[in-house]
Structures are given as structure tokens and as C-alpha cells.
Amino acid sequence: MEVEIKEHAGFEAKRRGIPEELIVRVVNNPQQKAPSKKGRIIIQNKFYDNKEKKEMLLRIIGLETTENFVVITVYKTSKISKYWIRED
Predict the structure, then answer these.
(1) CATH of the domain at 11
(2) Are 77 and 84 in contact (CB under 8 A)?
(3) Which of 41, 45, 58, 87 is at 20 to 30 A from 74, Cα to Cα?
(4) CB-side exposure of 53: number of CA atoms within 13 Å?
(5) pLDDT tens figures, 36-53
């Protein structure tokens, strides 16, 4: 899938130390997808952050079409249990 990273998302990713390659990889191979406000989609994956030395959650918010995914913003968090969707 084509991944377009909006200017704001690119700025935030750089500021937060999130490589563009990781964003593209997660969009193309998400562990979880969930609907969000304004027709947006949240894509998230757990990953080990070498800088933080712990497991983190990468959350990507964007708009999805059949051809592409437009990344609106992206952030990582250590609060995995707050956002992870449990499938009991």
C-alpha cells in the first residue's frame, strides 16, 4: 500500500524519534487496526524501542483508501495496556 506522510506527521515523527521506515512497515503490516473519529483509522504495533530500552506501542492515525494510507499523526507510548485492544 502507498503510504503518504503529511508534513505535520513527518515533523512529529522526527521530533519523537520515529523513523519513516518504521511507519511504512507498520502501516503495511499492522498488528491492530481500529476505527477512530472523523473517519480515521488507528494502526498500532508493539515494538522494542532501543532508545527507551523497553517495549512501546507505535500508534499511527490516518485516512485509508483502497490505494493508500495518509498518515496524519504518529506517536509512541509506553502505556500499551491503555490502548491495546484485547481479544478475549
Answers:
(1) 3.30.2310
(2) no
(3) 87
(4) 0
(5) 999 999 999 999 999 899
